[in-house]
Every structure is written in structure tokens, then in C-alpha cells.
Amino acid sequence: MSVKYVRTGFTIVELLIVIVIIGILAAITIVAFNGVQDRANLAAAQSAVAQASKKILAASFDNADNYPVAAGISGIDNLSAIGITNSGDTTYQYSSNNSVNPRTFCLTATKDTRSSFFSSTGSPTTGSCPGHGSGGVAPITNLLTNTSVESSTNNLQNIGSVSDRTIARTAVSDAYNGGYVLRITAGPSGGIAGYGSSSPTVPIGRYTGSVWLRSNVAMSANPYFEGSAARTNVTNQGRSLVAGQWAQVWQTVEVTTSGTLKIGFLSGNIVAQGQYVEIDGFMLTSGSTNYNFANGASSNWVWNGAIDASSSTGSPL
Q: What secondary structure letter does DSSP report for 312?
């Protein structure tokens, strides 16, 4: 008499199919959960900024329509008096200006990675105020006061010792930023050397500077720091310039004695008379990160003083 074999387990193929299905369901669940959590964080940020802005408006009514003065790194040091403080994973950033007419303020609330802002001219809006960090990312400051030669050549200074070159602030239609560049044209000696933008005095710490360059011939260029601040090199990135194309060179240094920093470039080779390099987009920030260029004219950035003559702050671009 024959015995019929009955399979009671799973084959390897069937097990693999089950594992794949479980993985797909888990991925769908995670995406759905993240979406719900993201919306909840945004709703919490919108609610927080709406409630806090009411307190700011109430405080202005009691102070001849003057808004609380921004103080501290994120501007909120004076807001604790009216009940606005960071709490858990909800944080605030605040700025105000009582010297303009009408007076203005802007408040950003961030819950985890979602931000919402409220200004004196609007209602809760997704994102952050100009000059504030967004989505949990802190703002950065371009410490240079002349970043793009749009208004003048103030604080732009020589690097190197070539005497017969020509240096001119030049209007062009395809500047890296804005409508002007600083053009250095080689004289009879064929030298270009370099030029840089100087900062105010900076304290001890690590800084990264960058500049955008374009030449009318192929040449090599290296970033270069000068200034009164004692410093040591951490890392640097030179470039072989392709004629007619913008390229960024950058360098990170450790400042060991406070002073000024001048970030610019040095030409790595001798060129012929009439050849030139155009300079634009100077940037100097605290830390080791080389950021994309930005200044007060960039999206969601602000000047910390006069336009094209002060440092500027905003979210990394």
C-alpha cells in the first residue's frame, strides 16, 4: 500500500514572497506615519506661532505700538517677559524693527523639522522669516561686508605684488551674482596675482571662505587668506579654470589670534598681457562647511545693516 506525502510547510519561494510583502507593507506604513507626523509638526508650529504672535501684538499695544526688541542669538531673550520661550522641541526666532514706519516684527516657530512664521503684515505661513533658520536648520552669516562689488570696491584689497595689472569694477550681463564683477587684467609683465574681500575683526575659531572666479583663458587658481588674524590652514580647494566658466575656490582656516581675514585667490600660473580673471561672490562663514554663496539680496536672507555694506544672514542655500 502506497503512502501519499502531504507537504505542510512553505517553500523557500513562498517564504521570500511573504517577506517581500511584509517589507512593502512596512514601507507603506512608515511613509504614512512620517506623513502624519510631518503634518502634525507643521500644525503644532502654526499653532505655536499664532499664539506667540498674539502676545507680541498685545505687548505692543501696551508700549506705544513698539514691538519687543529682539535680543540674543535667536532674538527671543526679551520675549520671556511676555511668556514666549523655547519649550522641548518647539523653538522660536524673532526679529523686530521699531525705527521704520510702519514698525515691523517677524516670528518663526519650529517644531522638529517644520517651521511656520508670522509677521506684522501677515498670518501664519509655512517656512521662516527672512534671516531666520528653517526646518530645524540654523541660520548662517556671511561675515563679509562687500560680497559682490554691486555698489563699490570698499574692503576689497590686493593679494600679491604685481604692479602693472588693471583692476576695475565692471558691469556684465552674466555676473555670478548681481550685475558687477571685479576684473583683474594682466599688464605687460603677464601677472595677475590676486585680490580679496576683507572682513571685520573675527574671534578665535574656524572659518571657511570662498570666492567665485571666471577667466577668459584656462588657468589655475587657488584660494588665499590674508589679514591680521593669526591662522593655520585646515583644508583648501583650488581649481583649474575653464575659459568663460564660473568656478568656486574655497579654504578653511583655524584662527588662533583674533583679527581681520581677507579671502581671495592667487593665480597659479603666469598669463599674457590682456588676459583677465573676474571675481564675484565672496563669502566667509564660521565653521568648516563650504556653503553656497549668499548675501542679503539672496532669497530669505537679510542685510544686518546697510545694503551691500554689511554682513548678512539667512538659511543655507
A: E
- CA distances in angstroms from 230 to 202, 222, 255, listed in the order given: 11, 20, 6
Pairing mode, strands 180-185 and 166-171: antiparallel
pLDDT at position 40 over 90: no
Q: Among 282, 315, 283, which Cα is nearest to 299's?
A: 315
Kindly report the backbone phi and psi dihedral angles of residue 110, in degrees, each rounded to the nearest multiple of 5, phi listed first: -125, 130
Specify whether domain 156-314 bears CATH 2.60.120.260. Answer: yes
The Cα 206–Cα 143 span in angstroms is 13
Q: Under the phi-then-psi rule, with left for phi > 0, alpha for psi from -120 to 50, and beta for the rest, what region is 45?
A: alpha
Residue type, 9: G
**What are the CB-based long-range contacts (under 8 Å, 24+) for 56-64?**
56/82, 56/84, 56/94, 56/105, 56/107, 58/82, 60/103
**Domain segments of the chain: what residues?**
50-136, 156-314
Choose among 246, 64, 279: nearest CA to 150: 279
Neighbouring CB atoms inside 10 A of 113's CB total: 15
pLDDT score at 295:
97
- Distance in angstroms (rounded) separating the CA atoms of residues 143 and 286: 8
* Cell numbers standing for residue 102: 510702519
pLDDT at 193: 72
